[in-house]
What we know:
Layout: H1 8-11, H2 33-38, H3 40-51, E1 54-59, E2 62-67, H4 70-79, H5 88-91, H6 95-98, H7 107-117, H8 123-142, E3 148-151, H9 152-169, H10 174-195, H11 208-233, H12 241-247, H13 258-289, H14 291-304, H15 319-331, E4 338-341, E5 346-348, E6 351-353, E7 358-361, H16 363-367, H17 388-391, H18 410-427, E8 428-432, E9 440-442, E10 446-448, E11 453-458
Helix pairs in contact: 8-9, 8-18, 9-13, 10-11, 11-13, 13-15, 13-18, 14-15
Keywords: Heme, Iron, Metal-binding, Monooxygenase, Oxidoreductase
Region (Disordered): 1-24
Binding site for heme: 407
Amino acid sequence: MLQDxxxxxxxxxxxxxxxxxxxxxxxxLLGSLIGxxxxxxxxxxxxxxxxxxxxxxxxxxxxxxxxxxxREIERVLVKEHQNFPKNEHFWRQVTALFGxxxxxxxxxxxxxxxxxxxxxxxxxxxxSYADAMARESMLTAEGWRAxxxxxxxxDMMALSLRIAAKALFGTEVEEDVLVIDDALNNIxxxxxxxxxxxxxxxxxxxxPGHVRYRRAIRRIDEIVARIITERRTSTAAGNDFxxxxxxxxxxxxxxxxxxxxxxxxxxxxxxGHETTALVLSWTIHLLSRHPEVDRALAAEVGDVVGQRAAxxxxxxxxxxxxxxxxxSMRLYPPAWAVGREAxxxxxxxxxxxxxxxxxxxxxxVLHRDPRFFNEPEAFRPERWHHGLAQRLPRFAYMPFGGxxxxxxxxxxxxxxxxxxxxxxxxxxxxxxxTNSPVSPIPSMTLRxxxxxxxxxxxxxxxxxxx
Length: 466
């Protein structure tokens, strides 16, 4: 049995002193490109299990490093993070979308933007966002009909986008949300293709996907620019994300420019809404296949919330609900891989690593590692009940990334997921659609291929009306 209380160093495999890390040789010229592109999740898992904590493989001449050693991951993401910046290959392809927002900015400017954005995710702001979370969740549940099969991934994408828009702008933006939703679908489709693209193709090249991508960005830009202009001329004090960003000042008393506001709004709109939607989609998928967990979840919701509307004050008492979401993110982390790059020649795990080498850290692989988790393929929310998170090595579990660049909205996302799941479980149970198998597709995020289709059946929760 796994001894979760062991110190992190005891989980590490022995440090090597060879010059080059081990790994698959692959094919001439192509290296391991075909295997990696065909099934990245299985490929990375097999590499880790066969070759150890530090693995090297080539894709079309490019050497890549895979890390599954918690100690070395901490070094890359925290202790020496200045020497391991984000890998440039993918982020160069999304500059037109994210601009210089928190996902893409670097060093001093990133630190400034992170400080300015932090109050928008502080406790008082989360309380104001929670009202929209609960209200929009109830509207979604009211639109479901018992006995019908639904694609809950599509439902969760629509719901989380409405919540993100309300949190961002604080006003009624239903018509804008419809335009943004259509534009984001085009953007996400193009980003998915770019993740597996081995070479950088400039946006200016008029490929059909590029044309749709640029057009979609322009549509969102027009909406965001209009709202920023309206807010600049308004005398009303807003209690939303955009207002918090506009009030923020750096140490020199300077505020964000319209362009900086635009970049952070787009970053939150895209990254924020899809992450929560994926967490909930995978959680519902798992609940539909594990009725015993669903029953335990419903029992807690009945005890804590009963038949009244869920509120942010309930979240600390919905421990099994939170652990269910935590376990879902272990099995299906939305950010299935984190990319970094060695800025200079260095040693990692006793191996020589050259400057410019891309480094891949995969939560998918880490979260299913039997060194860290008993029965790693099993869905067992109760594994988190007795302090497992505190006993695990740091970075054995990292659904929101880690280090200084850990997701700034992680608490927002967890509160949102708990409130939405509670609201849905109050009213419905989920039954797997055996005619619609679900499998993960690792694109920019870990998306369900073809959606998540489940039958929703009416549930009556026993408990107080409040």
